[in-house]
Amino acid sequence: MKIKLYTIIAILVTFFSYSQANKPISRMIFLDSLDTETSQGEHLYSRIIKNYFSDRTSYEFTEYYKSGNIKSTGITKNKDYLEIDGTYITYFENGKKESISNYKNKKTTGKSFNYYDTGNIQSEIEYLENEDEFAVNYKVLQAWNKENQQVIFDGNGKFESFENEHYIVNGIIANGLREGKWEGYNKSNTIKFIENYAKGKLISGITTDSNGIEIPYTLLFEKAKPEKGLKHFYDYVRYNFVRPNETEWQNTSGKIHLKFTIEKNATVNNIAIIKGINEKLDQEAIRTIQTYNKWLPGYSRGLPVRVQYRIPITLPSNK
């Protein structure tokens, strides 16, 4: 059945992509675990961007698991990478709905609904307007356990849930916010942590890693960053990007969009072009990023983590 379903998807893509005198309309891409474009068969999931080859302010997209089952659907402002705007729906691979949320200005906003893979509702959450991306920005309004028993009533009760698909956390919710002592562990049960909250704000936390070492922290997440700041990084890119000597490349302008991963040891890896200008300039952009190696790693609950960056490199015309 899964093979047949995936065949149907391929047929639909062909229909979407070639009509009106064989002019391409939509595009299907295959992506790996790092959201990098790859070949069919090596992919983890695929994405269809409707009307990709036309100029629009937004594009409908649908993603599929490798099995062919639907993974997510929504609208993106950028056709080359997801900049979700409006309603975004995700699905478990068994076909059950996983979440319904809304995005505005690259942030989740308003009410969001999460579900168990059985189809039962898990939680109703309200996201708040907040300029600080690491500050408390949501309230838990209602929640249910796996047995479909309600455990949070109008923002109050004891809550246990998955967090970012990696951790299971539990503690008290008061007026929609975390309060007092919270405990958690990762799915493999090799990392545990204890945290203290006041009105949703993290006061302190201690992670115990797989070797039994305790690591204190006061921030849930710290993004990887250049040692000397983002300005130093962008200045480096600006002054070290070398155009080919040919006149045609000297006068070329535009933006090269690329992404890369800062590993746990602060090295740069997995540099990939999202949307380029041409092969020579794209390769120079990759070389420039590779040669900048003065990064500080990202941290999650005191432990180093991989962090992905997505940036544009703007090339002004030399005319």
Automatic annotation (TrEMBL):
GO annotation, biological process: transmembrane transport
Origin organism lineage: Bacteria, Pseudomonadati, Bacteroidota, Flavobacteriia, Flavobacteriales
Protein name as it appears in the record: Energy transducer TonB
Superkingdom of the organism of origin: Bacteria
InterPro entries, sorted: MORN_2, TonB_C
Domain TonB C-terminal, residue spans: 244-313
Pfam families: MORN_2, TonB_C
Entry coiled-coil feature ranges: none
